[in-house]
Predict the 3D structure of the following.
Amino acid sequence: MAEKEQVAPIMDHPSSYEGNTSIHPQRNYQRKFINSCVCLLVFLLLLAIVIIVLIFTIFSVKEPIIRMNSVKVTKLELANNMSLIANVSVKNPNFASFRYSNTTTTLYYYGIMVGEAKGPSGRAKARHTISMNVTVELITKDMISSPNLSADLGSRLLNVTSFSRVPGQVKILKLFKKHVVVKMNCTMSFNITTQGIQEQDCKSKVKL
């Protein structure tokens, strides 16, 4: 009998293609990770830009503007007393409300304090202007003792200076609070005949 031919067994060798199949998922994972990091960095950059814009626009606290619109003499009796009603307005240029309290107005006659008044508390809405009336009772005995009174009476003008202080706070999104103090100095000339302001010069200062 013829001898049977011996057939060598075929050994399974991994192909180069099969060997690369374990590398592709790793590369895909790395690619996805890099893309995710880039997207996150872009998002954080855009968020930072938005926050910076908000800080310099909406979230920035602007100075409230205080003005003395008019002063009316309600009682003019130098022998007894003198009463004034000052109309003061507060303009809030912010995108948030401005709450104020303990408004104080003091009147001086040639450097001597002759009257003081407390104003009511209130709230100025965002980008709105409100006004309030403040009644001031003058101490006329201090005015009568001034050597400048006779000259003012002769010219029919009383030269008076006033100082107003309005403390408050600006509240943004009910989260951020910024304390603000508005101060204003005014130099006024009251016409004794018409009982009104003839001249007025006001300068304000805001402390944030």
In short: The first helix runs from residue 16 to 20. DSSP finds four helices and ten strands in the chain. The beta strands are 65-76, 82-92, 97-100, 103-109, 112-119, 122-124, 128-138, 157-172, 176-191, 196-207.
